[in-house]
Amino acid sequence: MRGAPPQVLQLLPLAKASFVAQSYFAPCIPFLVDRPCLSRKGKYYMKLPSCAFHNQYVACGSYRGDRTKFVSDMNIQKKSDNFDRQNQSLRSQQAREAQQMWDCRFAEFPWPEEPDRKLVELAGELSPGTCVDLGCGPGRNAIWLASRGWAVTGVDASSVGLDQAQSRAREIGVSLITVNQDILAYSPDEPVDLVVVANIHLVEPARTEFFTLCAQMLKSQGHLFVTGHHLKDLGRTGPPDSDKLYTIERIQDSVAGITEIVEIIELAELVKEPGPDGYSETDVYLWARRQ
Ligand SMILES: C[S@@+](CC[C@H](N)C(=O)[O-])C[C@H]1O[C@@H](n2cnc3c(N)ncnc32)[C@H](O)[C@@H]1O
Questions:
Q1: What's the helix, strand, coil split of the chain in %, to 5?
Q2: Are residue 50 and residue 140 in the same domain, yes or no?
Q3: 98 CB less than 6 Å from ligand 1?
Q4: What is the percent of the chain where pLDDT is above 70?
Q5: Cβ atoms of 186 and 179 closer than 8 Å
Q6: CB burial class (10 A; 0-12, 13-18, 19+) of residue 154?
Q7: Average pLDDT over residues 64-89
Q8: Please, which pLDDT band fits residue 228 given cuts at 50, 70 and 90?
Q9: Residue 287 has pLDDT above 50, yes or no
Q10: Is residue 255 part of a domain?
Q11: CA-based, 20 to 30 A from 185: which of 5, 64, 123, 280?
Q12: Distance (Å, rounded) from C-alpha 191 to C-alpha 214?
């Protein structure tokens, strides 16, 4: 089955497509395709992160459909000549995977524009200063902060996401600095007043290392905001890898080594408004301040 053309996936029912996708991409994707997720709109989809295969192609995209009809939005591209060169600027494997997956995701489906509700509530109380939004994507939080007078730098591996952020910032007349870089290797020139980490789901030990880097970016009295999907929503939203999802205890463990420099102000679950299917997703968020 490995030699089958990618289009074959479009014709198959969900379970079989899953099997074929696993076989076809087995050399490069040991993950994901076996578990369809239920999206808010009640459609099934499977995320297939970009991957290189046969050393010549890049595959990325998502699958969606209902139980009987299965649609593939797979995008198979021949590697551009500068593909490897571009990727070398993104240091970690995780960042390279993020770039490939999120470039496709942002190009295919519109990303929400409303800022995170908890961020609005918490940062809305602060006087504007300097801010870094790590993994800002198309910039819903960065743009909201910029519109409130913050000097925001959005960092992301996805150039598609950053282009979308810049074009929306221009549309609404706010200024935003964007940096196409690995957030696991980024450090601002000067310490900042606010670091935002929204929906970045990493496995340990990367999560602990990343939160430590975030804390080190803060000025004294600067704030750190982290939010992400709760483990209980596994299979509904967020990454289909349980180790990446958040619980209060996991965040506590990840910040345990930095509690001497960062004071936890709030660490809690936030149950969101129900979606169209009546289900309320849960986020976990952290609001902390550098001593
Ligand atoms: C789920 S989206 C969240 C976007 C935005 N923070 C929000 O909440 O709307 C995750 C973003 O993190 C970025 N990302 C993940 N890992 C990254 C890494 N190592 N370096 C840079 N960007 C990364 C992806 O490119 C993507 O834009």
A1: 35, 30, 40
A2: no
A3: yes
A4: 69
A5: yes
A6: buried
A7: 42
A8: very high
A9: yes
A10: yes
A11: 123
A12: 10
Strands 130-134 and 192-198: parallel
pLDDT attached to residue 284: 98
Using a 10 angstrom Cβ sphere, with 0-12 exposed, 13-18 middle and 19 or more buried, the burial of residue 141 is buried
14 in a structural domain: yes
- The predicted structure's pLDDT at residue 124: 98
Mutate to test the pocket of ligand 1, among 156, 163, 168, 245 (most ligand atoms within 8 A of CB): 156
pTM exceeds 0.85, yes or no: no
Domain count, the chain: 2
CB 253 within 8 A of CB 226: no
Query: Is 55 a residue whose pLDDT tops 50?
Result: no
Would you say the CB of residue 154 lies under 6 angstroms from ligand 1?
no
Any residues with CB less than 8 A from the CB of 7 and at least 6 apart, and which?
none
Using alpha carbons, select from 245, 243, 261 the residue that is nearest to residue 195.
261
Strand partners, 156: 180
Rounded mean pLDDT of 79-83?
41
CA–CA distance, 201 with 252 (Å, rounded to integer): 15
Helix (DSSP H) and strand (DSSP E) numbers for the chain: 8, 12
105 within ligand 1 shell (Cβ under 6 A): no
Q: Determine, yes or no, domain membership for 195.
A: yes
Instruction: Return d(Cα 229, Cα 269) in angstroms, integer.
Output: 10
Residues 141 and 198 in one domain: yes
Share above pLDDT 90 across residues of the chain, in percent, rounded to a whole number:
65
